[in-house]
Write a structure and sequence with these properties.
This protein is α+β, with helices and mostly antiparallel strands. The protein is 62% helix and 11% strand. The chain is built from eleven helices and seven strands. The strands form two sheets. The chain has a five-stranded mixed sheet, covered by helices on one side. It has a two-stranded antiparallel ribbon with strand order 1-3. α7 packs across α11 and α8 packs parallel to α9.
Length: 346
């Protein structure tokens, strides 16, 4: 019997000839059984008529030789067709262009079904892409439009220096952050990419993020430790800034008192450490998963489970590596490896 589950696990790896021989013999098992039955009938007839053994053996040897030759040719064709189908699977999107001509009515029926399924898939894909573009256009427009009333509200609240107004300004700050996160979520999920890679000053990017969160550090009375760095990295400035802002957002959110320190190692690893509540050991392996909030998120009731997931997704697109170390009650350290290998042209 065909072991289809085992074959799916091998992916597109080339199968050995003896594996194919096993499938070939199983596929032709009934023909083999029929030939065996025919041989038995002839042997019985030869025995009943008491024919000479030499003549019987000679005829049997010729039949065996011809049968072996026919099976060898058939098996060779079987292997060749299998390799052709494997090549088609590597570019299955071009199915209608590469599909071989059918040799049997059954193959023709299967090919017709495949072509119709491919047509239905293409139509559904086109419709989905159209709906996705329309949704992207709508939400992108909405995000940009909502920024206007946010800016107006900020200016109105800053006119008077009152405690309740300062509280509203803080909440408005987080609203703007969530709006920006939604916009970046859509951009990362779009088919097009606006990544622009160039050598950027890491110090400049870090200072932009710190300037944005300065009021949050002051309001939360969190001490900030950062020394300027002259390191430059190959990255996209806007998207690296987004990652750093998200990490600072987490640091501010989960550090009730203490400090946040930002350092850059000589091998271009950005280290953002806080003295916050930390992360439970069982949650550490999953904090970069989509929608995962963990114990802290459930207790805080404010976590969306998207911030760190977007950090990981963005880091992967930038070819950076992000990791975390944490102890409950002692704090958390996020490590962003910005190292890039040098390319040499020979």
């Amino acid at each position: 019997m065909y072991d289809m589950e085992a074959r799916r696990g091998t992916g597109m790896k080339e199968e050995k000839w003896y594996h194919l021989l096993k499938y070939f013999l199983w596929q032709h098992r009934w023909q083999g059984a029929l030939c065996g039955a025919f041989a038995g009938v002839f042997a019985l007839i030869f025995t009943l008529y008491d024919l000479e053994t030499e003549a019987v053996l000679y005829a049997s040897g010729l039949c065996l030789l011809l049968g072996t030759g026919a099976l060898t040719v058939s098996f060779s064709s079987y292997c060749r067709e299998h390799r052709q189908r494997q090549q088609i699977l590597q570019n299955v999107e071009l199915l209608s262009d590469n599909i071989p001509k059918p040799r049997t009515l059954a193959e023709a029926d299967y090919q017709e079904m495949l072509v119709k399924l491919k047509g239905a898939y293409d139509r559904n894909l086109t419709e989905w892409q159209k709906e996705r573009r329309e949704s992207m256009d709508y939400y992108t427009t909405w995000v940009h439009q909502i920024k206007t009333p946010i800016s107006v509200m900020r200016m109105m609240l800053r006119e008077e220096d009152k405690e309740e107004y300062r509280e509203l300004l803080e909440q408005l700050f987080w609203v703007e952050q969530y709006v920006g996160m939604a916009l970046n979520w859509m951009r990362l999920g779009s088919d097009s990419s606006d990544f622009v890679f160039e050598e950027c000053s890491l110090d400049k990017i870090i200072r932009q993020a710190l300037h944005k969160y300065a009021s949050q550090f002051v309001r939360s009375k969190i001490r900030l430790s950062y020394e300027a760095t002259e390191v430059s990295v190959l990255t996209d400035e806007k998207w690296l800034l987004f990652i750093i802002e998200q990490l600072l957002s987490n640091a501010v959110k989960y550090t009730k008192k203490g400090s946040v320190s930002i350092t850059v190692t000589p091998d271009k690893v950005l280290r953002i450490a806080d003295t916050g509540i930390g992360i439970a050991p069982e949650d550490v392996p999953r904090i970069f998963e989509k929608g995962f909030t963990g114990y802290n998120g459930r207790a805080d009731k404010k976590s969306t489970g998207l911030g760190l997931y977007l950090c990981r997704l963005t880091a992967e697109k930038l070819s950076h590596r992000i990791s975390v170390e944490s102890r409950v009650g002692e704090g958390t350290v996020f490590l962003l490896d910005l190292h890039s290998d040098e390319l040499w042209v020979e």
